[in-house]
Amino acid sequence: MTGEPKVRTLLGDIDPAELGVTDSHDHLFFASKLLPGEELDDPIAALRQLIEFKGAGGGAVVQWTPYGLGRRTRELAQVSRQLGVHVVAATGLHRAGHYSPSVLEAVVDDLVRVFVDDLVDGTGPADLPEDLRTRQQRAGLIKVAGGFHGIDAHARTTLTAAAVAHEETGAPIAVHLELGTAGPEIAELLCGTLGVSPDRVILGHLNRNPDPRIHRELAGTGVFLAFDGPSRANHATDWRLPDCLEALVEAGHGAQLLLGGDTTTATARREVGVPYLLTTLAPRLTKVLGGDVVTAMLVANPARAFATSWLK
Questions:
Q1: With pLDDT > 70 as the criterion, what percentage of the chain qualifies?
Q2: Which of 2-6, 65-69, 176-180 has the lowest mean pLDDT?
Q3: Of 6, 23, 227, 242, which one is least surrounded by beta carbons within 10 A?
Q4: What CATH code is assigned to 22-305?
């Protein structure tokens, strides 16, 4: 489709204003060989997370789980419809270490087709009416990943494929920054070399590398900056997060900031969970930044970040 920007959710394209309060980066389902025994694969548990999130005022969750890591889009669509919470799903490919060699070999030579098919076609649950099947399970963004302090060969391949898929569809690109690093290199590759508009790029995990100079440099490129994964062990997150955000707001970059939870393990779900963003973190940030600023990070900013004029 073309025309007015829309957010592509699992239940169809919606006006960006319909998202409401948005968790801009989280996982209701996720499974990686790097995290054995920590899989998020229980639909009932996912439903409970969304119930609590909605009860705290949440309206939408953007799941960054990419291809091959247990996205469970059928179950996502079911809980979204059941609760009336919007869910945006991802295509894309994570860092190579998350996959078995056989999975990578099956898709790496045809990544653009894999990404575009997820964004445009969507198969949908077989037990749904045909008109719903054709528009359900569509991904609404492309999630890829950088390397640690650089762009390795796998990252360059996936970032390049993401840029091509974006050019064909208009879909926004969300990037996992490994421990918050390599942001400038990735912004230069995507927005410079590959020609992706900065406002179609979201860089994640910037709170894991709380360097205000890097944050300002990245903000100056025009990309969206996601601060996600509160209360992650061994990361300088919550206690430095208000200062990092305050500095960016004071520098005039408040409209580029997104907040998320990034719950990727069963342990994180038990200890923090998706609702934490709204029940605990947002009130803390409001005391420092003010309610209007935090509301913009949760409502107005994601409405722009995840909306696009779809080309297919």
A1: 92
A2: 2-6
A3: 242
A4: 3.20.20.140
The total of other beta-carbon atoms located within 10 Å of residue 240's CB is 13
* Residue 163 exposure: Cα atoms within 13 Å on the Cβ side: 19
pLDDT digits (tens, 9 = 90+) for 133-153: 444 579 999 999 999 999 999
Q: Which residues contact 250 (CB under 8 A, 6 or more apart)?
A: none
Rounded alpha-carbon distances, angstroms, from residue 298 to 5, 173, 249: 18, 19, 14
How many Å from the N-terminal Cα to the C-terminal Cα in the chain? 5
Could you give the CA distance from residue 235 to residue 218 in angstroms, rounded to a whole number? Answer: 20
Query: How is the chain split into domains, by residue range?
Result: 22-305
pLDDT at residue number 236: 58
pLDDT tens per residue across span 237-253: 678 899 999 999 999 99
152/138 Cα distance (integer angstroms):
29
For residue 48, CA distances in Å to 28, 137, 269, 274 come to 10, 21, 11, 10
- The β-bridge partners of 201 are 173
In a 3-state reduction of DSSP, which class is residue 239?
coil
**Contacts with 279 (C-beta within 8 Å, 6 or more apart), sequence order:** 56
